[in-house]
């Protein structure tokens, strides 16, 4: 199936949805301050592109820094859980339990403790993204084909060689699945942090626009948020094609 | 583990293996003794869960016996069930895996791998990942990896089980041709009676973790599949079947 054939069905649905939205707003005379038509949103994105760019750059910076440390900590934590069964027995249930904490409620606390700068936003992104990366990587390390592990043992491989020749490469596809989930959280998590308190960022832009009743600008920021997330997802897919070439077949 | 009186390449004496699962004790192997001479092709035939793979893993150094000993003069190369080609390595990369694990230089191993791939009709697959190969080609690539590094004993765990009947026959003939290029002995585990007869010099029947009987295969080499229709082969097949068939 070519890329065009793959993209056609979702694009068709999206275009139909946008068309129906445009028609509904115009034909039903819906106030633009309640629900602007997609054409107005597109125009707003173009007209405010410079301001949106500044805010988007800030949000992207927070998301990428948070994501970077979430991946670093997540993979390290997954490897530690895998290699140390005693630590795993104590920590793994707590890790799962930690996901019952509504992270959004932690945002005001983090802002109070660490101020309005980049750090607390990156921390929120880390908290959101750490779990999917850790769990996906840990489960994959455990799920490596035991036949392959036996083969390496028979060849006299050390534990480190088994980890680097079998378990880590076997975990890569699952790691990328976890990363894909984490990426979809990252921009949203950064915006959540900005909602609570920030000087710049798409969250700040959305709040300011909403307070001024410029609903079309809220939608414009949403479009940029979506575009950023799609761009990050595309980057992850590209990285996966580079680092997991055997999956292309 | 010293059997100085034994002329065998491999001598297994009274090997047993017991697993504990919770409060239950499972006896996978019980007092298993067998031998393989230099250059000999030995098969262990048995039904599922008869302990065949457990024995092979012990001999490969993957598991430890709970009783008994074995002696191997030389070293062994192991092919687990289901080829175990690493999906992230090309066929050539998989063949070089033992050299990489041993920390040996790749140069000589690479030269040998390419020669072997070429001699056995797999050179066009050298740079492909295993996912791109057919079932038969995957098994052949795994067999080449097992024989490449001049081990004295090849431990093969049902190498042809995943293949359809016709591909299996072709792969068996291919294996015999491959073995002509080596001096290695083979210990093959299988549940296929005809495969055991076609390939082996000696067959051990394993049931419920015990050796039930040993047979010498009375078919001359070089082997052809038509020889399986000879009266002595059919008679052996009948005897093996009667030992293996559920009562």
TrEMBL record, chain A:
Q: Per its UniProt record, what Gene3D superfamilies does this chain match?
A: MetI-like (1.10.3720.10)
- Where does the protein end up? Cell membrane
Chain ranges passing through the membrane: 7-27, 63-84, 91-116, 122-141, 185-207, 214-239
> What are the ABC transmembrane type-1 domain coordinates in residue numbering?
56-234
Q: Does the keyword ATP-binding apply?
A: no
Q: Has keyword Hydrolase?
A: no
Cellular component aspect of the GO annotation: plasma membrane
Q: Name one Pfam family in it.
A: BPD_transp_1
The protein here is known as: Binding-protein-dependent transport system inner membrane component
UniProtKB/TrEMBL annotation, chain B:
PROSITE patterns attached to this UniProt entry: ABC_TRANSPORTER_2
InterPro entries associated with the record: AAA+_ATPase, ABC_transporter-like_ATP-bd, ABC_transporter_ATP-bind, P-loop_NTPase
The answer, when asked if Iron-sulfur is one of the entry's keywords, is no
List the GO molecular function terms: ATP binding; ATP hydrolysis activity
UniProt domain ABC transporter: residue ranges: 10-233
Top-rank taxon, per record: Bacteria
Keywords, A to Z, come to: ATP-binding, Nucleotide-binding, Transport
Matches recorded under Pfam families: ABC_tran
**Which SUPFAM superfamilies would you find in this protein's record?**
P-loop containing nucleoside triphosphate hydrolases
Has UniProt tagged this entry with the keyword Cell cycle?
no
- Where are the annotated coiled coils located? none
**Family annotation (PANTHER family):** ABC TRANSPORTER ATP-BINDING PROTEIN, TAURINE IMPORT ATP-BINDING PROTEIN-RELATED
Query: What name is this protein filed under?
Result: ABC transporter domain-containing protein
- Species the sequence originates in: Candidatus Kaiserbacteria bacterium RIFCSPHIGHO2_02_FULL_59_21
């Amino acid at each position: 199936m070519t890329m065009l054939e793959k993209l056609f069905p979702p694009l068709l649905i999206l275009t139909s949805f946008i068309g129906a939205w445009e028609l509904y707003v115009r034909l039903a005379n819906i106030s633009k301050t309640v629900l602007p038509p997609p054409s107005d949103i597109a125009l707003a994105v173009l007209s405010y592109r410079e301001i949106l760019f500044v805010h988007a750059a800030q949000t992207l910076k927070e998301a990428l820094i948070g994501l970077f440390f979430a991946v670093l900590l997540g993979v390290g934590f997954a490897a530690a859980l895998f290699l140390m069964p005693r630590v795993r027995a104590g920590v793994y249930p707590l890790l799962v339990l930690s996901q019952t904490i509504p992270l959004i409620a932690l945002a005001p606390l983090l802002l109070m403790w660490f101020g309005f700068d980049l750090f607390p936003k990156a921390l929120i992104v880390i908290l959101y993204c750490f779990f999917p990366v850790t769990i996906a990587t840990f489960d994959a390390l455990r799920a490596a084909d035991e036949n392959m592990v036996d083969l390496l043992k028979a060849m006299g491989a050390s534990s480190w060689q088994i980890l680097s020749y079998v378990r880590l490469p076997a975990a890569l596809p699952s790691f990328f699945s976890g990363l894909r989930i984490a990426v979809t959280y990252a921009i949203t998590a950064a915006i959540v942090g900005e909602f609570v308190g920030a000087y710049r960022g798409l969250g700040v832009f959305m709040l300011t626009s909403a307070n001024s009743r410029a609903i079309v600008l809220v939608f414009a920021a949403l479009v940029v948020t979506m575009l950023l997330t799609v761009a990050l997802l595309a980057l992850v897919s590209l990285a996966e094609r580079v680092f997991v070439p055997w999956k292309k077949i | 583990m010293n059997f100085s009186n034994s002329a065998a390449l491999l001598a297994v004496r009274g090997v047993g293996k017991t697993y504990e699962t919770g409060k239950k004790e499972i006896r996978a192997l019980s007092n298993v003794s067998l031998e393989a001479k230099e250059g000999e092709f030995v098969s262990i035939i048995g039904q599922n869960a008869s302990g065949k793979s457990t024995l092979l893993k012990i001999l490969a150094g993957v598991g430890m016996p709970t009783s008994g000993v074995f002696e191997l003069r030389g070293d062994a190369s192991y092919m687990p069930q289901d080829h175990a080609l690493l999906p992230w390595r090309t066929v050539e990369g998989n063949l070089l895996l033992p050299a990489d694990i041993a920390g040996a230089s790749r140069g000589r191993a690479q030269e040998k791998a390419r020669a072997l791939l070429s001699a056995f009709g797999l050179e066009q697959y050298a740079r492909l990942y295993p996912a791109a190969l057919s079932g038969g080609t995957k098994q052949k690539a795994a067999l080449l990896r097992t024989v490449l590094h001049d081990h004295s004993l090849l431990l093969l765990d049902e190498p042809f089980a995943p293949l359809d009947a016709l591909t299996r026959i072709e792969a068996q003939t291919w294996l015999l041709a491959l073995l002509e290029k080596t001096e290695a002995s083979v210990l093959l585990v299988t549940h296929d009676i005809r495969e055991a007869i076609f390939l082996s010099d000696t067959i051990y029947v394993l049931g419920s973790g015990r050796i039930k009987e040993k047979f010498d295969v009375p078919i001359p080499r070089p082997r052809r599949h038509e020889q399986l229709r000879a009266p002595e082969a059919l008679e052996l097949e009948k005897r093996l079947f009667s030992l293996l068939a559920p009562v």
